[in-house]
Structures are given as C-alpha cells and as structure tokens.
Amino acid sequence: KYAAAITIKKGEKSHIGSFPDERFAARIYDAAAIDKFGDDAVRHVNFPELADEPLDLNTRYVFCAEPFGNSDYAGVTRSKTGNTWKSSFSIDNKQTLYDFSTAILAAEHYDKLVLIHRDNMCTLINFPQKLPQYLAEIGDQIISPKPIVIPDLT
Questions:
Q1: Burial level of 128, CB count in 10 A (0-12/13-18/19+)?
Q2: What is the spatial distance between Cα 52 and Cα 39, in angstroms, rounded to a whole number?
C-alpha cells in the first residue's frame, strides 16, 4: 500500500488515503496539493504535465482487493465444515456472516456490501471488472453520493 498525505501548515500533515498503486497515490497527492494551494502547487507536484487534469477528490476509485484468510478473495473464508463459504463484513463495528455455496458467490456478495456501505476514496473489491453489473444491481442502495469509477492507471 502507498499512503498519500499533505502538509497543510508547518509540521501538520493531513492523511489523504492509502492506495494499492504508487502512481495513483502520487496523482491523488497532486490533486490535493492543487486543491489546497492552487497554481502555486503545480511546480511541486509529481506529475506537472497532468496538473490541468487532476483526479477528483470527491470520487470513489475502485481497485482489486488482495485476498486474505483461507480463500482467494477478500472478505471470504471457508466454513469450518468446509461445505460452504462465508462472506464476512462489518457494519457499525458489528460483524455479519453470510453463507454461500461457492467462494465466488461469497466474494461477489462482499463486493456489493463494500460498495453499499463504505465511503473510502480507495474502494477495494474482488472483481472490479464487474463494477457496472454491481451498480446496475445495487445502485439505489449505495449510501455515498460520490461517483464510483475504476481509475485509468496509465
């Protein structure tokens, strides 16, 4: 993970976010610097050639999550009996578990819960390529008013 932070006043840093891509973290920093300091910041940014098209700080950017636990997907674990897969998610510090017949179904469920309930600038889901399908299915349930996009990392 790569963190982006900006110094607002001497010695006072403001954490912008953590991102799985180094270049993207640098572009987010650039956008925050331009947002806070205007044209004076352009000579201090990582990508001055992109200063005229900074990333939107009020957008949720979707990245592929890295697996953790005993499965190939984030938020998914195999049940103790090994017959089912569980999608695990916390809402208001309360963990909820959902049972599914396959790890993929559990991972898709986890992705939808993340999109509905999280408001992070960096949103990690298992299947970013399914974002349009997810938005069609759950778009009206998403709490955050921010647009959700897959960033162009080129």
A1: middle
A2: 10
CB within 8 A of 109, min separation 6: which ones?
87, 98, 100
For residues 77 and 86, what is the distance between their CA atoms, to the nearest angstrom? Answer: 5
Q: What is the pLDDT along the chain (154 residues), one digit of tens a residue?
A: 788 888 777 777 888 888 989 999 999 999 999 998 888 888 889 999 998 888 999 999 999 998 877 889 999 999 888 889 999 988 888 888 899 999 999 999 999 999 999 988 899 999 999 999 999 999 999 999 999 999 987 6
- How far does Cα 150 stand from its chain's mean position? 9
Would you put residue 93 in left (φ > 0), alpha (ψ -120 to 50) or beta? left
Between CA 24 and CA 150 the distance in angstroms is 11
Match 């069609």 to its residue by tokens.
Answer: 136
**SS3 at position 108:** helix
DSSP H or E stretch at residue 114? helix 103-117
